[in-house]
């Protein structure tokens, strides 16, 4: 069974819950989800993976978490040409500028964003978000 990586950062568990639901969908789709907190992964390990998912909440002022996720994504950019990447994350009060910037950044580096945009949710993911993540996981398994 081939694996699909889901790499995330989460401070209070909302984006982690999203990552886990995405992993359930990947499993349902017949692939092996590898759901890992970003500090435990090297960007280089995704170099040969054609499809994977990244999750991070909106932090700072509409930016990625700066200690682990930001440097991870900065390093990853050199490897993403031609890859299909799913994005997701929770936010608290903004208008999802962080997600739009993240999508643009990866597209500019040559990646395709699966479904054209990331999945976002206000604070804790509710049933509609979890269901969308489950479906996205199944889709990733089929790509
Ligand atoms: C230091 C800090 C900065 C934040 N900055 C933003 C922000 O700029 N925009 C926003 O919508 N939410 C912001 N939030 C809210 C988080 O994105 C929100 O609480 C989210 O659900 C956290 O997800 P997590 O549980 O995966 O850590 C911030 C939260 C913290 C702690």
TrEMBL record:
<comment type="function">
    <text>Low-potential electron donor to a number of redox enzymes.</text>
</comment>
<dbReference type="GO" id="GO:0016651">
    <property type="term" value="F:oxidoreductase activity, acting on NAD(P)H"/>
</dbReference>
<keyword id="KW-0285">Flavoprotein</keyword>
<comment type="similarity">
    <text>Belongs to the flavodoxin family.</text>
</comment>
<protein>
    <recommendedName>
        <fullName>Flavodoxin</fullName>
    </recommendedName>
</protein>
<keyword id="KW-0288">FMN</keyword>
<dbReference type="InterPro" id="IPR001226">
    <property type="entry name" value="Flavodoxin_CS"/>
</dbReference>
<dbReference type="GO" id="GO:0009055">
    <property type="term" value="F:electron transfer activity"/>
</dbReference>
<keyword id="KW-0249">Electron transport</keyword>
<dbReference type="Pfam" id="PF00258">
    <property type="entry name" value="Flavodoxin_1"/>
</dbReference>
<keyword id="KW-0813">Transport</keyword>
<dbReference type="InterPro" id="IPR010087">
    <property type="entry name" value="Flav_short"/>
</dbReference>
<dbReference type="InterPro" id="IPR029039">
    <property type="entry name" value="Flavoprotein-like_sf"/>
</dbReference>
<dbReference type="GO" id="GO:0010181">
    <property type="term" value="F:FMN binding"/>
</dbReference>
<feature type="domain" description="Flavodoxin-like">
    <location>
        <begin position="4"/>
        <end position="141"/>
    </location>
</feature>
<dbReference type="InterPro" id="IPR008254">
    <property type="entry name" value="Flavodoxin/NO_synth"/>
</dbReference>
């Amino acid at each position: 069974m081939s694996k699909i990586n889901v790499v995330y950062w989460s401070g209070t568990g909302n984006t982690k819950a999203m990552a886990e639901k995405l992993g359930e969908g990947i499993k349902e789709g017949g692939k092996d989800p590898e759901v890992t907190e970003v500090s435990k992964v090297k960007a280089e390990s995704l170099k040969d993976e054609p499809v994977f998912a990244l999750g991070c909440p909106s932090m700072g002022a509409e930016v990625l978490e700066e200690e682990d996720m930001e440097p991870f994504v900065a390093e990853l950019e050199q490897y993403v040409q031609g890859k299909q990447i799913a994005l997701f994350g929770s936010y608290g009060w903004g208008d999802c500028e962080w997600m739009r910037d993240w999508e643009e950044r990866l597209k500019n580096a040559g990646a395709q964003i699966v479904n054209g945009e990331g999945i976002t949710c206000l604070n804790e993911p509710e049933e509609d978000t979890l269901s969308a993540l489950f479906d996205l996981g199944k889709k990733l398994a089929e790509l």
